[in-house]
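Q: What residues go here?
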């Protein structure tokens, strides 16, 4: 419980700092990210329990990575992260999960995610900001990747990539659990004003 409270305080501090850096009021961030002002006020006070969709919308609007909202100060030149040390940001109805392992530094950061999808379990994602590119590499099992309404089967040892600024869904396929590594390549610089 103390870990969760500390993580929420870190998210609160990072959201507020990013909002101020972007020169946005709570009202403007609320409008652009399509997150209620009450939820934002609570989040900046380290109250509530933001879900993955909310964190993604805030990160996209602020022009930063999801992990930039979640992580504290850098720990050094090399980071080694264990999946067990990272809490899932999404848990599916059948036991699947998504863990944001880390985000690279630099002007165009890359998020590295580990996903597990059970058969017929799916995660629909809203479109990201322009310039976001996602790559999925299936390490075991099979998934159906749906991009802008078109289904693509991605099997073990296959990799797919697509522009993330269109609706997309990940669905476990077949009879086995699907394990995949997803990278989200973020565009350099701040998000354009809407």
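A:
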């Amino acid at each position: 419980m103390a870990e969760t409270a500390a993580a929420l305080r870190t998210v609160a501090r990072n959201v507020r700092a990013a909002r101020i850096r972007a020169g946005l009021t709570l009202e403007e961030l609320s409008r652009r990210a399509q997150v209620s002002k009450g939820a934002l006020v609570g989040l900046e006070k380290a109250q509530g329990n933001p879900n993955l969709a909310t964190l993604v919308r805030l990160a996209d609007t602020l022009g930063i990575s999801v992990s930039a909202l979640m992580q504290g100060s850098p720990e050094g030149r090399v980071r080694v992260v264990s999946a067990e040390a990272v809490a899932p940001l999404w848990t599916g109805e059948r036991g699947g999960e998504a863990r944001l392992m880390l985000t690279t530094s630099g002007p165009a950061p890359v998020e590295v995610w580990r996903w597990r999808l059970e058969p017929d379990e799916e995660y629909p994602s809203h479109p990201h900001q322009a310039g976001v590119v996602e790559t999925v590499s299936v390490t075991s099992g099979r998934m159906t990747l749906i991009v802008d309404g078109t289904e693509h089967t991605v099997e073990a040892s296959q990799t797919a990539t697509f522009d993330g600024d269109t609706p997309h869904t990940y669905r476990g396929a077949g009879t086995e659990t699907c394990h995949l590594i997803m990278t989200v390549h973020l565009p350099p610089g701040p998000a354009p004003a809407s």
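A: Context that may help when evaluating the design: The longest strand covers residues 110-117. Strands lie at 90-91, 97-103, 110-117, 122-125, 133-140, 142-147, 150-155, 159-163, 168-173, 178-185.
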